[in-house]
Design brief:
Rossmann fold; alpha/beta; 15 helices; ten-stranded mixed sheet
Length: 543
Protein backbone atom coordinates (compact mmCIF):
# COMPACT_ATOMS: atom_id res chain seq x y z
CA UNK A 1 0.00 0.00 0.00
CA UNK A 2 1.51 3.33 -1.10
CA UNK A 3 0.39 6.67 0.26
CA UNK A 4 1.55 10.26 -0.18
CA UNK A 5 1.58 11.93 3.20
CA UNK A 6 1.42 15.70 3.68
CA UNK A 7 2.60 16.93 7.07
CA UNK A 8 1.30 19.97 8.89
CA UNK A 9 4.09 22.31 7.84
CA UNK A 10 4.17 21.27 4.20
CA UNK A 11 6.64 18.40 4.38
CA UNK A 12 5.80 15.48 2.11
CA UNK A 13 6.77 11.82 2.20
CA UNK A 14 5.78 8.77 0.19
CA UNK A 15 5.23 5.77 2.44
CA UNK A 16 4.92 2.16 1.38
CA UNK A 17 3.29 -0.18 3.89
CA UNK A 18 3.79 -3.95 3.47
CA UNK A 19 0.20 -5.11 3.05
CA UNK A 20 -2.89 -3.84 4.84
CA UNK A 21 -2.48 -5.39 8.30
CA UNK A 22 -1.26 -2.76 10.74
CA UNK A 23 -0.43 -5.15 13.58
CA UNK A 24 1.14 -8.60 13.28
CA UNK A 25 2.97 -10.82 15.79
CA UNK A 26 6.13 -10.46 13.70
CA UNK A 27 8.64 -7.62 13.63
CA UNK A 28 8.56 -4.66 11.25
CA UNK A 29 11.55 -2.57 10.26
CA UNK A 30 11.70 0.99 8.98
CA UNK A 31 13.73 2.09 5.96
CA UNK A 32 14.24 5.63 4.65
CA UNK A 33 15.48 6.41 1.16
CA UNK A 34 16.93 9.92 0.80
CA UNK A 35 17.34 11.08 -2.80
CA UNK A 36 17.19 14.29 -4.81
CA UNK A 37 14.30 13.70 -7.21
CA UNK A 38 11.15 12.33 -5.60
CA UNK A 39 7.81 12.29 -7.43
CA UNK A 40 5.15 9.80 -8.48
CA UNK A 41 7.26 8.53 -11.38
CA UNK A 42 10.51 8.01 -9.47
CA UNK A 43 8.72 6.35 -6.54
CA UNK A 44 6.85 4.05 -8.90
CA UNK A 45 10.12 3.07 -10.60
CA UNK A 46 11.82 2.39 -7.25
CA UNK A 47 8.99 0.15 -6.08
CA UNK A 48 8.69 -1.76 -9.35
CA UNK A 49 11.79 -1.60 -11.52
CA UNK A 50 14.21 -1.45 -8.57
CA UNK A 51 12.41 -4.11 -6.58
CA UNK A 52 11.71 -2.15 -3.39
CA UNK A 53 8.06 -3.19 -3.22
CA UNK A 54 8.96 -6.87 -3.26
CA UNK A 55 11.77 -6.34 -0.76
CA UNK A 56 9.41 -4.57 1.65
CA UNK A 57 6.80 -7.29 1.32
CA UNK A 58 9.36 -10.09 1.77
CA UNK A 59 11.07 -8.52 4.79
CA UNK A 60 8.13 -6.67 6.40
CA UNK A 61 9.63 -3.20 5.91
CA UNK A 62 7.83 0.15 6.08
CA UNK A 63 9.53 2.35 3.48
CA UNK A 64 9.64 6.15 3.71
CA UNK A 65 10.80 8.31 0.78
CA UNK A 66 10.75 11.97 1.88
CA UNK A 67 10.47 14.72 -0.72
CA UNK A 68 13.56 16.96 -0.36
CA UNK A 69 13.29 20.75 -0.30
CA UNK A 70 14.34 22.71 -3.39
CA UNK A 71 18.09 22.41 -3.76
CA UNK A 72 18.30 18.97 -2.17
CA UNK A 73 19.33 17.86 1.30
CA UNK A 74 22.49 19.90 1.75
CA UNK A 75 21.03 22.62 3.96
CA UNK A 76 18.43 20.58 5.85
CA UNK A 77 18.99 20.32 9.60
CA UNK A 78 19.23 16.80 11.01
CA UNK A 79 16.45 17.60 13.48
CA UNK A 80 14.08 18.16 10.54
CA UNK A 81 14.34 14.43 9.86
CA UNK A 82 12.39 13.83 13.09
CA UNK A 83 9.15 14.77 11.32
CA UNK A 84 9.67 11.98 8.80
CA UNK A 85 11.06 9.57 11.41
CA UNK A 86 7.95 9.87 13.58
CA UNK A 87 5.59 10.07 10.64
CA UNK A 88 6.48 6.63 9.32
CA UNK A 89 3.99 4.97 11.69
CA UNK A 90 1.20 7.53 11.38
CA UNK A 91 -0.21 7.90 7.85
CA UNK A 92 -3.04 10.14 9.07
CA UNK A 93 -0.71 12.52 10.99
CA UNK A 94 -3.00 12.37 14.04
CA UNK A 95 -1.30 13.00 17.41
CA UNK A 96 -1.13 10.11 19.86
CA UNK A 97 -3.77 10.26 22.55
CA UNK A 98 -2.23 9.68 25.97
CA UNK A 99 -3.78 7.90 28.93
CA UNK A 100 -3.71 9.18 32.50
CA UNK A 101 -0.53 7.13 33.00
CA UNK A 102 1.19 9.10 30.21
CA UNK A 103 1.31 6.34 27.61
CA UNK A 104 -0.55 6.16 24.27
CA UNK A 105 -4.08 4.88 24.57
CA UNK A 106 -5.04 1.50 23.21
CA UNK A 107 -7.06 3.16 20.44
CA UNK A 108 -4.01 5.19 19.38
CA UNK A 109 -1.67 2.21 19.39
CA UNK A 110 -4.08 0.08 17.37
CA UNK A 111 -4.55 2.84 14.79
CA UNK A 112 -0.87 3.29 13.96
CA UNK A 113 1.68 1.13 12.20
CA UNK A 114 4.59 0.09 14.37
CA UNK A 115 8.11 -0.03 12.89
CA UNK A 116 10.33 -0.79 15.86
CA UNK A 117 12.80 1.93 16.83
CA UNK A 118 15.73 -0.49 17.11
CA UNK A 119 15.52 -1.51 13.43
CA UNK A 120 15.41 1.69 11.39
CA UNK A 121 17.82 2.20 8.53
CA UNK A 122 18.63 4.87 5.95
CA UNK A 123 19.97 4.80 2.38
CA UNK A 124 21.28 8.01 0.82
CA UNK A 125 21.77 8.92 -2.86
CA UNK A 126 23.03 12.23 -4.28
CA UNK A 127 22.79 15.03 -1.71
CA UNK A 128 20.82 12.53 0.39
CA UNK A 129 24.05 10.55 0.82
CA UNK A 130 25.90 13.42 2.51
CA UNK A 131 22.78 14.15 4.59
CA UNK A 132 22.62 10.50 5.71
CA UNK A 133 26.27 10.68 6.76
CA UNK A 134 25.50 13.79 8.81
CA UNK A 135 22.60 11.96 10.44
CA UNK A 136 25.01 9.25 11.55
CA UNK A 137 27.05 11.89 13.34
CA UNK A 138 24.27 14.08 14.73
CA UNK A 139 21.46 11.59 15.48
CA UNK A 140 23.12 8.18 15.85
CA UNK A 141 20.54 6.86 18.33
CA UNK A 142 17.89 6.86 15.58
CA UNK A 143 19.61 4.43 13.21
CA UNK A 144 20.70 0.82 13.27
CA UNK A 145 22.62 1.21 10.03
CA UNK A 146 23.06 3.27 6.88
CA UNK A 147 24.19 2.94 3.30
CA UNK A 148 25.35 5.72 0.98
CA UNK A 149 26.16 5.76 -2.70
CA UNK A 150 28.58 8.67 -2.91
CA UNK A 151 28.69 11.58 -0.50
CA UNK A 152 31.25 12.42 2.15
CA UNK A 153 31.17 13.18 5.86
CA UNK A 154 31.71 16.94 6.40
CA UNK A 155 35.06 17.71 8.08
CA UNK A 156 33.35 19.35 11.06
CA UNK A 157 31.05 16.36 11.73
CA UNK A 158 32.10 14.24 14.71
CA UNK A 159 31.07 10.60 14.92
CA UNK A 160 30.26 9.84 18.55
CA UNK A 161 28.88 6.31 18.30
CA UNK A 162 29.40 3.10 16.34
CA UNK A 163 27.33 2.90 13.13
CA UNK A 164 27.16 -0.12 10.82
CA UNK A 165 27.62 1.40 7.39
CA UNK A 166 28.00 0.57 3.71
CA UNK A 167 30.12 3.26 2.05
CA UNK A 168 30.19 3.19 -1.76
CA UNK A 169 32.31 5.79 -3.57
CA UNK A 170 33.10 7.79 -0.42
CA UNK A 171 36.45 9.49 0.22
CA UNK A 172 39.19 7.95 2.34
CA UNK A 173 38.60 10.36 5.22
CA UNK A 174 34.95 9.31 5.52
CA UNK A 175 35.89 5.61 5.52
CA UNK A 176 38.64 6.18 8.10
CA UNK A 177 36.35 8.06 10.49
CA UNK A 178 33.65 5.40 10.35
CA UNK A 179 36.29 2.72 10.96
CA UNK A 180 37.39 4.65 14.05
CA UNK A 181 33.81 5.08 15.28
CA UNK A 182 33.17 1.35 14.86
CA UNK A 183 36.43 0.51 16.68
CA UNK A 184 37.51 -1.53 13.69
CA UNK A 185 40.44 -3.87 14.40
CA UNK A 186 39.85 -6.63 11.81
CA UNK A 187 39.87 -6.37 8.02
CA UNK A 188 38.65 -8.87 5.44
CA UNK A 189 38.92 -7.33 1.99
CA UNK A 190 36.20 -4.70 1.67
CA UNK A 191 34.79 -5.53 5.12
CA UNK A 192 36.18 -4.00 8.31
CA UNK A 193 34.79 -4.83 11.73
CA UNK A 194 35.35 -4.84 15.48
CA UNK A 195 36.41 -8.27 16.72
CA UNK A 196 34.63 -7.78 20.07
CA UNK A 197 31.39 -6.77 18.36
CA UNK A 198 31.54 -7.85 14.69
CA UNK A 199 28.35 -5.94 13.76
CA UNK A 200 30.20 -2.69 14.32
CA UNK A 201 31.32 -2.84 10.72
CA UNK A 202 32.20 -0.85 7.63
CA UNK A 203 31.55 -2.28 4.16
CA UNK A 204 33.20 -0.53 1.18
CA UNK A 205 32.06 -2.79 -1.67
CA UNK A 206 31.10 -0.56 -4.66
CA UNK A 207 27.39 -0.41 -5.51
CA UNK A 208 25.40 0.62 -8.54
CA UNK A 209 21.87 1.94 -8.11
CA UNK A 210 20.03 -1.01 -9.61
CA UNK A 211 17.49 -3.65 -8.71
CA UNK A 212 19.98 -5.88 -6.90
CA UNK A 213 21.71 -3.19 -4.83
CA UNK A 214 18.94 -2.57 -2.28
CA UNK A 215 18.39 -6.26 -1.60
CA UNK A 216 22.15 -6.83 -1.35
CA UNK A 217 22.50 -4.13 1.31
CA UNK A 218 19.53 -5.48 3.19
CA UNK A 219 20.74 -9.08 3.13
CA UNK A 220 24.39 -8.39 3.93
CA UNK A 221 24.02 -5.59 6.48
CA UNK A 222 20.65 -4.23 7.59
CA UNK A 223 18.87 -7.48 8.36
CA UNK A 224 21.66 -8.40 10.80
CA UNK A 225 21.96 -5.26 12.96
CA UNK A 226 19.85 -3.35 15.47
CA UNK A 227 20.50 -0.43 17.83
CA UNK A 228 19.38 -0.85 21.43
CA UNK A 229 18.74 1.93 23.95
CA UNK A 230 21.36 0.86 26.47
CA UNK A 231 23.35 4.09 26.40
CA UNK A 232 22.53 7.63 25.29
CA UNK A 233 23.62 6.97 21.69
CA UNK A 234 22.54 3.31 21.61
CA UNK A 235 24.57 0.13 21.25
CA UNK A 236 24.84 -2.02 18.12
CA UNK A 237 23.92 -5.66 18.44
CA UNK A 238 22.73 -8.48 16.20
CA UNK A 239 19.24 -9.22 14.95
CA UNK A 240 17.45 -12.52 15.45
CA UNK A 241 16.86 -14.95 12.61
CA UNK A 242 13.39 -15.25 11.07
CA UNK A 243 10.88 -16.02 13.84
CA UNK A 244 9.05 -18.46 11.56
CA UNK A 245 12.16 -20.63 11.52
CA UNK A 246 12.85 -20.50 15.26
CA UNK A 247 9.49 -20.90 16.95
CA UNK A 248 6.35 -22.93 16.81
CA UNK A 249 3.93 -20.09 16.13
CA UNK A 250 0.31 -20.35 17.20
CA UNK A 251 -1.65 -17.64 15.36
CA UNK A 252 -5.21 -16.72 16.34
CA UNK A 253 -5.59 -20.11 18.04
CA UNK A 254 -8.94 -20.56 19.83
CA UNK A 255 -8.25 -23.81 21.66
CA UNK A 256 -7.24 -22.26 24.99
CA UNK A 257 -10.51 -20.52 25.93
CA UNK A 258 -12.54 -20.22 22.68
CA UNK A 259 -11.00 -16.79 22.01
CA UNK A 260 -8.29 -16.15 19.39
CA UNK A 261 -4.82 -16.00 20.95
CA UNK A 262 -1.31 -15.85 19.53
CA UNK A 263 1.91 -17.08 21.12
CA UNK A 264 5.33 -18.42 20.14
CA UNK A 265 6.91 -21.52 21.73
CA UNK A 266 10.52 -22.66 21.81
CA UNK A 267 11.44 -26.13 23.07
CA UNK A 268 15.16 -26.84 23.59
CA UNK A 269 16.53 -29.41 21.18
CA UNK A 270 18.15 -32.67 22.25
CA UNK A 271 16.25 -32.90 25.53
CA UNK A 272 16.70 -36.25 27.27
CA UNK A 273 13.53 -38.40 27.16
CA UNK A 274 11.47 -38.09 30.33
CA UNK A 275 13.41 -35.09 31.62
CA UNK A 276 11.26 -32.40 33.21
CA UNK A 277 11.97 -28.91 31.89
CA UNK A 278 11.57 -25.49 33.51
CA UNK A 279 9.47 -22.92 31.62
CA UNK A 280 9.83 -19.15 31.26
CA UNK A 281 6.96 -17.02 29.95
CA UNK A 282 7.98 -13.54 28.76
CA UNK A 283 5.39 -10.77 28.30
CA UNK A 284 6.07 -8.13 25.63
CA UNK A 285 5.89 -4.39 26.25
CA UNK A 286 2.97 -2.15 25.29
CA UNK A 287 2.42 -2.01 21.51
CA UNK A 288 5.07 -4.71 20.99
CA UNK A 289 4.59 -8.34 19.97
CA UNK A 290 6.08 -11.84 20.45
CA UNK A 291 8.82 -11.42 17.83
CA UNK A 292 9.95 -8.14 19.36
CA UNK A 293 9.98 -9.72 22.83
CA UNK A 294 12.07 -12.61 21.53
CA UNK A 295 14.57 -10.33 19.80
CA UNK A 296 14.90 -8.09 22.86
CA UNK A 297 15.60 -10.87 25.33
CA UNK A 298 16.94 -13.89 23.36
CA UNK A 299 15.49 -15.96 26.21
CA UNK A 300 14.94 -18.86 23.82
CA UNK A 301 18.68 -18.91 23.07
CA UNK A 302 19.39 -19.01 26.79
CA UNK A 303 16.70 -21.69 27.08
CA UNK A 304 18.50 -23.79 24.49
CA UNK A 305 21.72 -23.54 26.51
CA UNK A 306 20.12 -23.97 29.93
CA UNK A 307 17.39 -26.45 29.01
CA UNK A 308 14.15 -24.55 29.58
CA UNK A 309 11.03 -23.97 27.50
CA UNK A 310 10.35 -20.38 26.42
CA UNK A 311 6.94 -18.91 25.61
CA UNK A 312 6.28 -15.46 24.12
CA UNK A 313 2.52 -14.73 24.24
CA UNK A 314 0.77 -11.81 22.52
CA UNK A 315 -1.76 -9.83 24.53
CA UNK A 316 -5.39 -10.68 23.81
CA UNK A 317 -6.01 -7.24 22.28
CA UNK A 318 -2.77 -7.61 20.22
CA UNK A 319 -1.25 -4.54 21.80
CA UNK A 320 -1.05 -4.27 25.59
CA UNK A 321 -1.66 -6.41 28.67
CA UNK A 322 -4.53 -5.84 31.06
CA UNK A 323 -2.01 -5.81 33.90
CA UNK A 324 -4.26 -3.60 36.03
CA UNK A 325 -7.05 -6.24 35.96
CA UNK A 326 -9.60 -3.78 34.60
CA UNK A 327 -12.85 -5.82 34.51
CA UNK A 328 -13.99 -3.98 31.38
CA UNK A 329 -10.96 -5.17 29.40
CA UNK A 330 -9.71 -8.56 28.24
CA UNK A 331 -9.04 -11.20 30.87
CA UNK A 332 -5.35 -11.82 30.19
CA UNK A 333 -4.88 -13.57 33.53
CA UNK A 334 -7.29 -16.35 32.50
CA UNK A 335 -5.63 -16.52 29.07
CA UNK A 336 -2.16 -17.04 30.56
CA UNK A 337 -3.48 -19.51 33.13
CA UNK A 338 -5.01 -21.55 30.31
CA UNK A 339 -1.77 -21.28 28.32
CA UNK A 340 0.24 -22.63 31.26
CA UNK A 341 -2.13 -25.57 31.64
CA UNK A 342 -1.90 -26.26 27.92
CA UNK A 343 1.89 -26.25 28.04
CA UNK A 344 1.88 -28.63 31.02
CA UNK A 345 -0.33 -31.06 29.07
CA UNK A 346 1.68 -30.94 25.85
CA UNK A 347 5.28 -30.88 27.06
CA UNK A 348 7.34 -32.45 29.90
CA UNK A 349 7.35 -29.23 31.93
CA UNK A 350 8.17 -29.27 35.62
CA UNK A 351 5.17 -27.64 37.39
CA UNK A 352 7.47 -26.60 40.23
CA UNK A 353 9.68 -24.51 37.93
CA UNK A 354 7.48 -22.05 36.05
CA UNK A 355 8.90 -18.51 35.92
CA UNK A 356 7.69 -15.20 34.52
CA UNK A 357 9.38 -12.16 33.06
CA UNK A 358 8.32 -9.20 30.97
CA UNK A 359 9.25 -5.73 29.77
CA UNK A 360 7.45 -2.48 30.65
CA UNK A 361 3.70 -3.19 30.45
CA UNK A 362 4.72 -6.86 30.26
CA UNK A 363 6.73 -6.51 33.48
CA UNK A 364 3.56 -5.31 35.19
CA UNK A 365 1.72 -8.29 33.68
CA UNK A 366 4.33 -10.70 35.07
CA UNK A 367 3.84 -9.20 38.54
CA UNK A 368 0.05 -9.27 38.28
CA UNK A 369 0.02 -12.90 37.13
CA UNK A 370 2.33 -13.90 40.00
CA UNK A 371 0.04 -12.13 42.48
CA UNK A 372 -3.14 -13.69 41.13
CA UNK A 373 -1.68 -17.22 40.89
CA UNK A 374 1.33 -17.41 43.23
CA UNK A 375 0.88 -21.18 43.59
CA UNK A 376 1.79 -21.62 39.91
CA UNK A 377 4.87 -19.39 39.79
CA UNK A 378 8.28 -20.10 41.31
CA UNK A 379 9.84 -16.68 40.67
CA UNK A 380 9.75 -13.57 38.48
CA UNK A 381 12.32 -11.28 36.88
CA UNK A 382 10.47 -8.24 35.46
CA UNK A 383 12.28 -5.48 33.55
CA UNK A 384 11.59 -1.72 33.46
CA UNK A 385 8.08 -1.34 34.83
CA UNK A 386 6.83 2.18 35.59
CA UNK A 387 3.89 0.66 37.48
CA UNK A 388 1.92 1.35 39.60
CA UNK A 389 1.15 5.02 39.09
CA UNK A 390 1.95 7.46 36.33
CA UNK A 391 5.28 7.63 34.58
CA UNK A 392 7.57 10.26 36.05
CA UNK A 393 4.86 11.48 38.47
CA UNK A 394 5.25 11.52 42.26
CA UNK A 395 2.00 10.78 44.05
CA UNK A 396 0.64 8.93 47.05
CA UNK A 397 -0.79 5.50 46.28
CA UNK A 398 -2.42 3.15 48.78
CA UNK A 399 -1.57 -0.42 47.79
CA UNK A 400 -5.14 -1.45 48.72
CA UNK A 401 -6.36 0.56 45.70
CA UNK A 402 -4.02 -1.25 43.25
CA UNK A 403 -6.16 -4.22 42.26
CA UNK A 404 -3.32 -6.71 41.55
CA UNK A 405 -1.74 -5.85 44.91
CA UNK A 406 -5.05 -6.33 46.68
CA UNK A 407 -5.64 -9.65 44.87
CA UNK A 408 -2.17 -10.78 45.82
CA UNK A 409 -2.74 -10.07 49.48
CA UNK A 410 -6.05 -11.96 49.35
CA UNK A 411 -4.16 -14.99 48.04
CA UNK A 412 -1.49 -14.51 50.67
CA UNK A 413 -4.10 -14.62 53.43
CA UNK A 414 -4.95 -18.18 52.33
CA UNK A 415 -1.31 -19.29 52.21
CA UNK A 416 1.71 -17.20 53.13
CA UNK A 417 3.22 -17.27 49.66
CA UNK A 418 6.68 -15.83 49.06
CA UNK A 419 7.76 -14.63 45.63
CA UNK A 420 11.46 -14.43 44.62
CA UNK A 421 12.01 -11.29 42.53
CA UNK A 422 14.89 -9.97 40.45
CA UNK A 423 13.77 -6.57 39.16
CA UNK A 424 15.86 -4.59 36.66
CA UNK A 425 15.53 -0.86 35.94
CA UNK A 426 17.51 1.60 33.80
CA UNK A 427 19.17 4.75 35.11
CA UNK A 428 17.78 6.75 32.17
CA UNK A 429 14.21 5.73 33.04
CA UNK A 430 11.59 8.28 34.16
CA UNK A 431 11.53 7.31 37.84
CA UNK A 432 15.28 7.51 38.32
CA UNK A 433 16.75 8.60 40.65
CA UNK A 434 14.21 6.79 42.83
CA UNK A 435 12.41 8.99 45.37
CA UNK A 436 9.43 8.64 47.66
CA UNK A 437 6.01 8.51 45.97
CA UNK A 438 7.51 7.34 42.64
CA UNK A 439 6.26 4.20 40.89
CA UNK A 440 9.46 2.42 41.93
CA UNK A 441 8.98 3.15 45.63
CA UNK A 442 5.35 1.97 45.58
CA UNK A 443 6.41 -1.19 43.78
CA UNK A 444 9.38 -2.26 45.88
CA UNK A 445 7.77 -1.38 49.21
CA UNK A 446 4.82 -3.60 48.35
CA UNK A 447 7.03 -6.54 47.39
CA UNK A 448 9.12 -6.11 50.54
CA UNK A 449 5.94 -6.22 52.60
CA UNK A 450 4.78 -9.28 50.65
CA UNK A 451 8.07 -11.09 51.30
CA UNK A 452 8.42 -10.02 54.98
CA UNK A 453 11.39 -7.75 54.30
CA UNK A 454 11.96 -4.69 56.46
CA UNK A 455 10.82 -1.51 54.71
CA UNK A 456 13.11 1.50 55.07
CA UNK A 457 12.04 5.02 54.05
CA UNK A 458 12.89 6.14 50.53
CA UNK A 459 14.52 9.61 50.24
CA UNK A 460 12.24 12.52 49.41
CA UNK A 461 12.28 14.38 46.09
CA UNK A 462 15.10 16.91 46.24
CA UNK A 463 17.13 14.93 48.75
CA UNK A 464 20.65 15.04 47.35
CA UNK A 465 22.08 12.85 50.10
CA UNK A 466 19.94 9.78 49.35
CA UNK A 467 21.21 7.10 46.99
CA UNK A 468 19.92 7.21 43.41
CA UNK A 469 18.33 3.74 43.53
CA UNK A 470 16.24 4.67 46.58
CA UNK A 471 17.11 2.29 49.41
CA UNK A 472 20.48 0.51 49.81
CA UNK A 473 20.27 -3.26 49.91
CA UNK A 474 21.37 -5.49 52.75
CA UNK A 475 24.04 -6.69 50.34
CA UNK A 476 25.28 -4.63 47.40
CA UNK A 477 27.11 -5.82 44.30
CA UNK A 478 28.52 -4.24 41.16
CA UNK A 479 28.48 -6.42 38.04
CA UNK A 480 30.04 -6.01 34.58
CA UNK A 481 28.61 -9.20 33.03
CA UNK A 482 28.62 -8.45 29.28
CA UNK A 483 31.75 -9.23 27.26
CA UNK A 484 30.39 -7.56 24.12
CA UNK A 485 29.64 -4.35 26.01
CA UNK A 486 32.16 -4.31 28.87
CA UNK A 487 30.98 -0.88 30.10
CA UNK A 488 27.48 -2.17 30.92
CA UNK A 489 27.30 -1.85 34.70
CA UNK A 490 24.70 -3.26 37.07
CA UNK A 491 24.27 -2.17 40.68
CA UNK A 492 22.48 -4.93 42.58
CA UNK A 493 20.65 -4.23 45.86
CA UNK A 494 19.87 -7.52 47.60
CA UNK A 495 17.24 -7.57 50.35
CA UNK A 496 16.79 -10.38 52.90
CA UNK A 497 13.96 -11.39 55.21
CA UNK A 498 14.34 -12.28 58.89
CA UNK A 499 15.24 -15.87 57.91
CA UNK A 500 18.15 -14.60 55.79
CA UNK A 501 16.44 -15.44 52.49
CA UNK A 502 17.25 -13.18 49.54
CA UNK A 503 13.74 -12.70 48.12
CA UNK A 504 13.91 -9.24 46.55
CA UNK A 505 16.56 -7.65 44.35
CA UNK A 506 16.45 -4.14 42.93
CA UNK A 507 18.92 -3.96 40.04
CA UNK A 508 19.89 -0.77 38.21
CA UNK A 509 21.68 -0.90 34.87
CA UNK A 510 23.49 2.37 34.43
CA UNK A 511 22.91 4.44 31.28
CA UNK A 512 20.11 2.16 30.08
CA UNK A 513 16.89 3.75 28.83
CA UNK A 514 13.56 1.96 28.32
CA UNK A 515 15.06 -1.20 26.90
CA UNK A 516 16.07 -4.80 27.55
CA UNK A 517 19.87 -5.03 27.69
CA UNK A 518 21.68 -8.19 26.53
CA UNK A 519 22.29 -9.45 30.07
CA UNK A 520 19.00 -8.38 31.73
CA UNK A 521 17.20 -11.67 31.17
CA UNK A 522 20.24 -13.87 31.84
CA UNK A 523 20.90 -12.24 35.22
CA UNK A 524 17.24 -12.64 36.15
CA UNK A 525 17.21 -16.30 35.11
CA UNK A 526 20.39 -17.02 37.07
CA UNK A 527 18.60 -15.80 40.20
CA UNK A 528 15.12 -17.35 39.85
CA UNK A 529 16.37 -20.74 38.65
CA UNK A 530 17.30 -21.59 42.25
CA UNK A 531 13.65 -21.63 43.38
CA UNK A 532 10.87 -24.19 43.13
CA UNK A 533 7.16 -23.81 43.94
CA UNK A 534 6.02 -26.91 45.76
CA UNK A 535 2.50 -28.30 45.42
CA UNK A 536 1.52 -27.01 48.87
CA UNK A 537 2.41 -23.45 47.86
CA UNK A 538 5.66 -23.25 49.79
CA UNK A 539 8.91 -22.17 48.25
CA UNK A 540 12.02 -24.32 48.09
CA UNK A 541 15.46 -22.99 47.26
CA UNK A 542 17.86 -25.35 45.51
CA UNK A 543 21.56 -25.07 44.77
Amino acid sequence: MLCRKQFRHGETMYIFYPGSQQRTPFKRSGLFLLMDEVNEQTVSALLGQYGLEQLCMDEDIILGIPVPPPGGWDNVSSSAMRIFYDGLSNPEDIPFELSREGIPTLASMLRFWHPMNDVRYVIGLGTGASYALRLAAEQPAWWAGLCVLGGNLPPEARLIAPMPVWLSACDASTVKRFCQANQVDTRDGELCYCHRNPWQRVVTTPLCCNASAFRLVWNRLFRHVRRINTCSTGDITSRMEDAHQIFRCFIEDERLDSMPHTWFEHIPADTAPGKKLPMVIFFHGGSDNPAEAAEMTRLHELGQQEGFVTVYPWATNRCSWNSGLNPELEDDISYITALIQSMLRRYPIDPERIYLSGFSNGAAMAMSMALCHPGLIAGIFPIDSNWPGRRGIYEEIDWHTVLPFAKGMEQKALCDYLMPIWYTYGSRELSYPVRRRSSQQHQYDFWKMYNHITISPTPEVGDTEGCDYGVPGDLQETLYPCTTFPKHRYEVQRFYDSSDRNLYNYVVMYDKGHEVAPMDAALGWNYVRAFRRLSDGTLKQIS
